[in-house]
Amino acid sequence: LVDMYSKCGELESARHVFSHMGDRDVATWNAMIMGFCTNGHSRQAVDLFYQMQREDVEPNDVTMLGVLSACAHAGLVNEGRECFDSMCLERAIVPKVEHYGCMVDLLGRAGLLYEAFEFIEQMPLVPHTGVWGALLGACKIHGNVELAECTIKHLVELDHEDGGYLAIMCNIYADAGRWDDVSRLREVMRKKGVIKMPGRSSVEIDGEIHEFGAGDKVHPRHHEIYEMIDVIFVRLRRAGHYDTLDDAFVTVEVFEAIQQDKSSS
Q1: Domain 2-198, second-level architecture
Q2: What is the per-residue pLDDT across 108-156, written as a single tens digit (0 to 9) for each?
């Protein structure tokens, strides 16, 4: 019930069930900790972990994964470090690659990019794409092109068919105004046939689900949709906003889709 309510966003109901349970095992604590974490209450997730310790409930690897994730999202670097160190030194829990990934995410979000890189280099396990991907995402957030270029090499070696990471690298170059590098990397992707699976969105209107994506012409009312996009652009310009190429909110994929739509109309 705690897990179900949490996944449905009914955090108060989950908390009520948890609070009124007579016998709470580690799985129950884990469900509540993850519930707080996934619903944006990271600080409360960490506080619940401390309460769990006070009640002498022994955490397991799932507990630590939830706590580290909460620390990453809340920016609790010191608490995250302490929790990770305690896994080996106090609890005899062997960290898995997912725990290392959370630590990289934690350090990266806090801007400690080179510490995160060194952390990966010292891992006793082979880092997978999720670990390097966390560092690449942090490089994008903090605009570190040099470290991003080093990181993308590892990602390409691990999975040369996933265009998602290359698309992120393109956006990092774009955010830095390095458009020659953007064009070069996009050309490499085209020649190798590497593509990023386009994201899709859906919206419910009057009980009907409408699904669409950037550059999509499948929707039966796509002409009306693009006409509305043009209206929105006009209104934005009247309000003083212009869709400049160095705008960090305009991704390479969206810009290319817009240009393609305009040229084909």
Answers
A1: Alpha Horseshoe (1.25)
A2: 999 999 999 999 999 999 999 999 999 999 999 999 999 999 999 999 8
248 — pLDDT class (breaks 50, 70, 90): very low
CB atoms within 10 A of CB 262: 10
- pLDDT > 90: what percent of the chain? 50
Global pTM reads: 0.71
Of 100, 153, 107, the closest CA to residue 130 belongs to 100
Given a contact cutoff of 8 angstroms between Cβ atoms, the answer to whether 259 and 245 are in contact is no
Higher pLDDT, 207 or 238: 238
The H-or-E segment that residue 141 falls in is helix 129-142
Cα maximum dimension of the chain: 66
Average pLDDT over residues 56-64: 92
Where exactly are the structural domains of the chain? 2-198, 199-265
CA distance 222 to 191: 30
C-alpha triplet 137, 143, 144: angle, nearest 5°:
85
Cα separation, 261 vs 240, in Å, equals 23
Tokens of residue 12, six digits: 């108060």
